[in-house]
Write a structure and sequence with these properties.
The protein has six helices and no strands. It has helices at residues 2-24, 26-34, 37-50, 53-70, 75-83, 87-111. The protein is flat. It is an all-alpha fold and 112 residues long.
Length: 112
């Protein structure tokens, strides 16, 4: 249970810090969030807890495939101004593209 709480504290600190930093230095915060910090932490936590290299490698491959697929979320933000979309429409469109991306990810990872 202590391990679980420690994982929550570390993860929540990183997210909270980036959110706080986004007001003061949005470019730096964006760069920090774009780093694979969550992936690095999750891979380390997973391997430390289960000591299964094969599953950790599969996990890492899934992350590798998931990164470009997850970028689908941001496509509506690039076109929101030119299409006259408000935040909610843009955000929901990004979520919808992520749902499509999930099925693409699921297909690709089932093949490798």
């Amino acid at each position: 249970m202590l391990s679980f709480i420690l994982k929550i504290l570390i993860s929540s600190f990183l997210i909270s810090f980036a959110s706080w930093l986004s007001f003061k230095k949005p470019n730096l915060a964006g760069f920090i969030i774009s780093l694979p910090l969550v992936s690095i932490i999750a891979l380390a936590f997973s391997y430390t807890e289960f000591r299964d290299l094969e599953k950790t490698v599969t996990f890492a491959k899934s992350i590798f495939i998931g990164i470009p697929v997850s970028l689908l979320f941001f496509i509506p933000f690039f076109f929101s101004k030119s299409l006259g979309l408000n935040f909610l429409t843009t955000y929901i469109s990004g979520i919808a593209l992520l749902v499509i991306g999930f099925f693409v990810h699921k297909h690709i990872t089932s093949v490798i």
